[in-house]
């Protein structure tokens, strides 16, 4: 399957890719966004939709899912072509730019590319126990999309990091009975969150690891094993949130010929990679002084788009003008 040539293809529909899409539309460029996830929003949607973000300019406090919703509205305002549930697999240079081939074999021609792939097409780390895949959607979760699913239910959360503790605090008023299962008594979470959970009604099951899942059609309990004594115990629960991290790998992008340092693509002060006309912004890019934050990443996206514009049309101005002067 082959498609039309666009001015810019954005790989990754997270906050930086979405803002790049908006900005490219603002500059009159045709846009295609490719994302391996079925939904736009990147980490905001996939990892922490129910958490508050406090460091967005103009928003003293905004839920990640609300921020994602507005970024999606803004980022699709100029009607970019969306290619979702497709992983950008390979790139080949052509006379007019590049052709990106997706995992399913779609060949997508483009004049320039902006890679905003975050930590790559991330996958949650799994427990690695039998029936785990079968129980996804039937009690096993790797993130929280909708808090109401846990209303009045027996919930266990596995993990000892910020996500596990944040979800304990976040779901305390929603779930009926709550447990935190962790293989040690040392945590990688903010002390404040740890203290709050310890003082709460959350039952702490420390030095335990989940070994078996039980239930026909939906989860009813788990067998945990004491990591020191190896004794096992049955715990009843309707839902289990697994928060033991995500595998972050650039995956196929590692073979595209980029200069890569510590899993990030090296860019110059135009956010251009070592491939001409291919830019990288957001969490995926690396330069001296890089901060992995949305506020800085969206600025990188705007700058990269302006340089992509002048790459395509050397007579175009780099400075886009003020949006407040535009009739949008
Ligand atoms: C729990 C948590 C809380 C956070 N809180 C804050 C906060 O308060 N403030 C803040 O500024 N930042 C916060 N961050 C960080 C912030 O979410 C990231 O900096 C931001 O999401 C980076 O945006 P991005 O667009 O670069 O990448 P991402 O949001 O990671 O999006 C990348 C997208 O690219 C897609 N992708 C990757 N590779 C491919 C491929 N080969 N083909 C197709 N698609 C691909 C992925 O599926 C993903 O959707 C937090 C992060 C976490 C995990």
Structural account:
It is a single chain. This protein is an alpha/beta fold. The protein has 2 domains: 195 residues, FAD/NAD(P)-binding domain (3-Layer(bba) Sandwich), CATH 3.50.50.60; 123 residues, FAD/NAD(P)-binding domain (3-Layer(bba) Sandwich). Helix content is 22%, strand content 29%. Strands 1, 2, 5, 6, 7, 8 and 21 form a 7-stranded mixed sheet that branches. Helix 1 runs parallel beside helix 3, helix 1 packs parallel to helix 7 and helix 5 packs across helix 6. The mean pLDDT is 94.
Per the CATH scheme, the topology name of the largest domain is FAD/NAD(P)-binding domain
CATH class annotation of the largest domain = Alpha Beta
Structural class: alpha/beta
> Percent range for helical residues?
10-25%
- The coarse overall form would be elongated
Average pLDDT, rounded to a whole number, is 94
Overall number of domains: 2
Q: Low-confidence parts, pLDDT < 50 over ≥5 residues?
A: none
Q: DSSP helix count?
A: 7
Cofactors, ions and other ligands in the entry: flavin-adenine dinucleotide
Strand content: 25-35%
Give the termini separation.
Answer: 34 Å
- Give me the CATH superfamily of the largest domain: FAD/NAD(P)-binding domain
Produce the secondary structure layout.
Layout: E1 6-11, H1 15-26, E2 31-35, H2 42-46, E3 52-53, E4 62-63, H3 64-75, E5 81-84, E6 88-94, E7 97-102, E8 107-115, E9 123-124, H4 132-135, E10 140-141, E11 154-158, H5 162-171, E12 177-182, H6 191-199, E13 203-206, E14 208-214, E15 221-226, E16 232-236, E17 239-242, E18 246-247, E19 260-261, E20 264-266, E21 278-280, E22 285-286, H7 294-312
Bound molecules: flavin-adenine dinucleotide.
């Amino acid at each position: 399957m082959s498609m039309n040539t666009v001015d810019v293809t954005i790989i990754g529909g997270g906050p930086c890719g979405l803002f790049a899409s908006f900005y490219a539309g603002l500059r009159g460029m045709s846009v295609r966004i490719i994302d391996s996830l079925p939904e736009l929003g990147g980490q905001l949607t996939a990892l922490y939709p129910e958490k508050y973000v406090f460091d967005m300019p103009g928003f003293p406090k905004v839920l990640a899912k609300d921020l994602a919703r507005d970024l999606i509205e803004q980022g699709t305002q100029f009607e970019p072509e969306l290619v979702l549930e497709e992983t950008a697999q390979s790139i080949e240079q052509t006379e007019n730019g590049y052709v990106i081939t997706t995992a399913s074999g779609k060949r997508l021609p483009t004049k320039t590319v902006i890679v905003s792939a975050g930590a790559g097409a991330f996958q949650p780390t799994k427990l690695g126990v039998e029936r785990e895949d079968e129980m996804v959607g039937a009690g096993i979760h790797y993130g929280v999309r909708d808090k109401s699913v846990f209303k009045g239910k027996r919930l266990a959360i596995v993990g000892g990091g910020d996500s596990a503790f944040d979800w304990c605090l976040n779901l305390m008023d929603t779930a009926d009975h709550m447990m935190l299962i962790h293989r040690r008594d040392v945590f990688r979470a903010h002390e404040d969150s740890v203290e709050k959970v310890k003082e709460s009604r959350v039952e702490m099951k420390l030095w335990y690891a989940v070994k078996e899942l039980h239930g026909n059609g939906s989860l009813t309990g788990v067998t945990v094993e004491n990591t020191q004594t190896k004794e096992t115990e049955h715990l009843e629960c309707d839902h289990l949130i697994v928060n033991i991290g995500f595998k972050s790998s650039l995956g196929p992008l590692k073979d595209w010929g980029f200069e890569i340092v510590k899993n990030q693509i090296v860019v110059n002060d135009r956010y251009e990679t070592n491939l001409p006309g291919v830019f990288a912004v957001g969490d995926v890019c690396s330069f001296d002084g890089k901060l992995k934050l949305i506020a800085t990443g969206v600025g990188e996206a705007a700058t990269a788009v302006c340089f992509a514009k002048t790459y395509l049309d050397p007579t175009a101005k780099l400075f886009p003008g003020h949006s407040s002067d535009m009739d949008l």
